[in-house]
Amino acid sequence: MSENELNRLSFNEAVAFVKQRKQAAFAAMPVFGDDDQTAEGARVFVLLPDEDEGWTLRFIAGPFFSAAYAANDTIPADEIPDRVRELLFMPTRCEEDWFSDQLQVLIGKLTQAAGIGDQMPDYESQAAKGAGPEAVFPVSFIGLKKPL
What we know:
- This protein is an alpha+beta fold.
- The chain has one domain (3-125).
- The chain has four helices and five strands.
- A five-stranded antiparallel beta sheet has the order 4-3-2-1-5.
- A hairpin with a 6-residue loop joins strand 1 (24-32) and strand 2.
- The longest helix has 12 residues, at 103-114.
- The radius of gyration is 15 Å and the shape is globular.
- 23% of the residues are buried.
- The mean pLDDT is 81.
């Protein structure tokens, strides 16, 4: 087993880590395009310490290289899907202002803070693209079923 695999935590272990250490943990999943070979975006789940509840789960999803997210929500503990509870989380740290960065910059900061980001490109220095009010994201980015 590699050292990175040893640092991964189950959902319950990550919740305990966040509550005890008052630090964050995250998991990220790529979202593939129509060709199923190129990642076009990602879903990121960040467990954060919370004064009232002990922890919260922040869900961020969207395309790469865009300053707009398809989702940027807090998911209540009783609404967390089983598929999220099956993910492995990485201990890290997180600052609130990171959630206003492009998705790939957020992932880069989370991986750098976790000590595993040395192979990530420097996305932060690249120009940001904005989305206008007419922007519509495919439902697949946030993992919901397509409307009938």
